[in-house]
Known about the structure:
Blueprint: H1 5-32, H2 40-53, H3 68-76, H4 79-103, H5 111-119, H6 128-153, H7 156-163, H8 168-183, H9 187-200, H10 208-215, H11 228-248, H12 251-275, H13 286-291, H14 297-321, H15 323-334, H16 347-355, H17 360-369, H18 371-386, H19 391-404, H20 415-418, H21 421-424, H22 435-460, H23 467-491, H24 507-518, H25 520-533
Helix pairs in contact: 1-4, 1-6, 1-7, 2-3, 4-6, 4-7, 4-8, 8-9, 9-14, 10-18, 11-25, 12-25, 14-15, 18-19, 19-23, 22-23
Protein name: GPI mannosyltransferase 1
Membrane topology: Multi-pass membrane protein
InterPro entries: PIG-M (IPR007704)
Amino acid sequence: MPLDPKHNALALVSAVTLRLILALFGVWQDSVSAVKYTDIDYAVFTDAAALVSAGSSPYARATYRYTPLLAWLLVYVNGKFLFCACDVLAAICIHWINELNEWNQPPPSNLSQSLKNQKKKQPNKANSPAKSKNNQQQQQHHSSRWLELSLWALNPFVAVISTRGNAESIIASLVLLSVFLLMRQRIAWAGIAFGLAVHLKVYAIIYALPFWLYINHSTTALPAKIDNSNLEHSVVKSELRSRSRSQSRSRSNLKGVQKSSSRSRSRSHSKSDTKSTKHMPPPSENVCFILHPFFTYNRLLFAATSASTFLLLGAVFYKLYGHEFLQHTYLYHITRQDHRHNFSLYFYHLYLDSSAILSEKKSAVSGLVAFIPQLGLSAFVSVKAAVRGDIVMALFAQTFVFVMLNKVMTSQYFMWYLCFLPIILQRSSLVSTQWRKGVTLLGLWIASQAVWLGNAYRLEHLGLNTFRSLHFSGLLFACVNAWILVQVVLSSSVPIRYEGVGIVDSEEEQKRLENVAKGDGIGESKQRRRKKMD
């Protein structure tokens, strides 16, 4: 069921208004207070854009460690406006994905009865309570969808990060757009969006593995343009024919026929489970399946478009700026070591390394070793979810682990995984039956940050030696994050997967929908009953 347009418009207008108010407040605070609202990174962005407009290199600005594309964009567009616009675009993508997950549902078993009820034009007093109950359920549904969308659009943390001048919303919008395009089977466009995201922020390359595994499900998907009305009509015809056939039987033989048909259906289901995995790919994919099932046509198309986008942009900027483009945009982030206080587990270790007499080579090796548990664990959790078709949970879990184990972790990094949360909570018990646990998890997440921020304030503003306290606060925050991730995964419903027409929960259900769409379901049910009667 799609979101009510009134709720949708209200959420988006409120999101724009909130960001406008915060942006104006930031201008006022920057002019009257010594503590600036605008982030220091925004000054780096604007200075690099000024250098580009003057015909110079953006890397002439110290600490500019980003792609030149960002500086080029800020030459023509105000940076905060661009970041807030991408914020709203991410909210729209969240709405689109939730709408797909809600609208594309398998046909119910009592579809014929539901369609008959919909065709009744003259309501009577008997069904008026049912209608009022249905309207109440629809209102609750719209409210829940509005709440899930507001978790990003009206989240003050997200709005503050964007209005302060951080560019994280660009990556969030591009990754969510890639997910939406993959769900709509727009493989090439999804690859272009993903390649652009990796070019802007190299960390997004970690999504290549879950995307690759998820695309495997699209090879067995139903055609993207099946008419749902025809599908419902076929199911209704099947139900009506089976009902008329059963009524023509005598009452004495009816029970025996039902028992034997149930046994035959159980045996046929066990056979169909083994056959359902042998879906024949389209002609364009036969060569790929002969080489190896791991290399499907859609997977190779996604890889080709994303790699082409990434390499083309990289070649253009390498031609313009040479090796400093590679060094500051990509290589720097691999060997980066920030000894300034942050939420990272490695903060205290990096701080001690910076004060010790270590060779540059040894320091770089120490930074590379930190990638092993980070990449290994994040890849493991993403594969566990992606192979079952739960792409959003795979991206959320992978990003959550990646940020939790990163060498540098600041508040703006939380946006990397918060953009997936409104989609996950759509089918999570943490907002329904276990909402108290959800509130507890949120409180622990905020409280553990408050403990760390208190120690950071004592260090930075009061000049007290709280390095060890900061270290233990970071360990506490990591433990809380690990427990939150486990609870979020456990509270999520059975993994679902988008299959062109609907969300198919099993291979058997997918096979049934394929037979109905082809018109074979009615014929098979006839043959099965005739064999049992004979």
